[in-house]
Amino acid sequence: MSNSNNTTYIVDLRSDTVTKPTKAMKHAMVNSALGDDVYGEDPTVNALESKVATLLGKQAALFVPSGTMANLIAVMVHCNKRGSEAFAGHLSHIYKYEQGGASHLGGVLLSTLQNKPDGTFEISELKRRLRGSDLHEPISSMIAIENTHNVCGGKVLPQEWVDELGDFCTDHGLALHMDGARLLDAAAYSECPAARLVRPCHSISICFSKGLSAPVGSALAGSYHFIEQARRVRKMLGGGMRQAGVLAAAAVVALDEVAPQLHYSHKRARVLATTIQGLFLPTFSVDVAGLHTNIVLVRLAARSPLSADIVLQRLAQVCLAETQGDCKTPNDEGVIVKAVCFDSKTIRFTLHHDINDEDLWLTIMKIIYVFKELDAANPFKANDKE
Question: Of 288, 289, 287, 266, nearest to 351 (Cα)?
């Protein structure tokens, strides 16, 4: 958290990527043992990669600059013939937020499966759509899933479904990749080792800068052969780094010290969600029962004249009346809350390691004030309520 000026205090809930490295991370970065990672000689990177492989129950791992690159490398390794087909959910990060890199850079056809609210899709639909026996068609080569599922509200995939999909991929000779940017949130929620969650997967990406407070970096895990090929693709994409241990050191601390605390963000997210739903305002609702981890999705009533953008603009403003009540810091600073909109009727608040109980309290006070104000100023007919 930081003050934008002398009169306002900002609580940034746009994403769990906005976290700053901890003091322990900075100390580790300054004092890390270094070498040339392209030559495989950086001891800190090697230690991180070994740690990730053990954590995920795989043979090897590879440190990369970003989760987007990790996912792209996985697609390009699994679909190593241009024109191959990869399936992903229509709400997945790979499909929505990675600029079609699999197609642009890898020559891979991305086909979508309809995501259900829990982040899964129908395996029966996948079975119907597999291709490759007809020479007119592309060859279906891999399936990508996401855990936790961002757009579905930080949902943890049902393990029974992941296991069933893994069996299906084995039976049909398909690679299964998990975009596990927030996998450790899934492990914390399910109270299950991460290695068990990804057991059916041939490759997994995890992110150190989402929720874990590291400044940079992701990792890709899989078999020895997969990582050998991934290392070549990383180099081709410009992801080969030299004395990368200065970054890997922060990721090691993230796994050791921040990952065990993820459940605190989950608890704070639940408090926020329960509070909003408990206002019983016609305009705003939260699926508290469906809340799993650190992401709170606030839905605006479809027939409300309000849009998510209008709500975000109001949360970024401070009026005099707010600061005359409880909606201020002990230093009489007005409060600004930052969030993002997924669409015109959905706002995402993301709790993270840098948010403490005081920040949560200020957020709640601000949201209560603003939501009540907007709901009263923008009524709609009772029989229009969903």
Answer: 266
